[in-house]
Amino acid sequence: MLPYNLWTQNANLQASYHACAYVFVPRSRVLKCIEELEAIVRQNEWENAKKLIDILSNHGKKMMSETQRDTLFLATILRVLKLIREEALKCIQGIHAEFEENLTNRLFAVGDVDYSNASGCSLRESILAAISDLVLELTSVYESISGLSLDFIHSDELILTIGYSKAVYQFLKTAAKRGRIFKVMVCESYPENSGHEMAEVLSKDNVSVILVPDSHAFGLMSRVNKVIVDCQAIYSDGTLKAATGTHAVMLAAKRCSIPVSDCHRSILFILTLPLVFRLKFFCRL
């Protein structure tokens, strides 16, 4: 799976879109979270994979309480636990161990595997190597998504986005640098008004930008060729946790049958949970 996936589907076919306000989490904080988990794997004295999973789960509870239960940190912790389970299965069943193709199956299922049978120095090394690959994946996400820009953006198009997103910005910026001529309509995303920052940085890259209030999204949607947004989490039922105002934009796109593209990292896939994260979820990991 690519570190960034561009998920596209006609908005008229979507069942529903949900959005809520969230605080943008810098990539550096996510990498720091992974470094903490990597340090536990490297330094902590654990006898087998089951013991390591318990240690990281307990650390995850503490980390989630300190970060105000941020969804992206939860997704990061679950992704690291998934890597540990995969390496443990390889240790138990051999290098030809088969994994479920669906990411969520291995990510959230408890399963009937006895991870206490997976141990040894080689397991520690393989887990650290898998975590290093995850870090490399996260550090190259913007380059990966930008490389697909010409496949989705064509000349003389009017693209609508909402708020500020570095992923969307890099995506549009790369397309403009490669010769695509298009216009971008940016909804301001009240009350954060992060759309003002997006309009400013795009205009500096010689991209034609129109800044509009969120309330104008429906009236202008019929003139738009496509909608490109970003999110902080993608739940298993297709729900997006996104910036304030995204829901209204999606409803307008659905009404006008405008295609919607979502720039997201594979690490953002997460189990459907209430907005207030329940720490007892970790008891099942």
Euclidean distance between termini CA atoms? 24 Å
Which spans of ≥5 residues are poorly predicted at pLDDT below 50? 1-24, 100-110, 274-285
Largest sheet: 6 strands, mixed
Can you count the helices? 11
Categorize the overall geometry: elongated
Number of domains: 2
Please write the string of helix (H) and strand (E) elements: EHHHHHHHEHEHEHEEEHEE
Instruction: Count all strands and give the number.
Output: 9
Mean pLDDT comes to 78
Helix/sheet category: alpha/beta
Oligomer: single chain
CATH top-level class of the largest domain: Alpha Beta
- Side-by-side strand order of the widest sheet: 1-8-5-2-3-4
Radius of gyration: 21 Å
| Reported CATH architecture of the largest domain | 3-Layer(aba) Sandwich
Q: What would the CATH topology of the largest domain be?
A: Rossmann fold
Q: Please, what is the CATH homologous superfamily of the largest domain?
A: Translation initiation factor eif-2b, domain 2
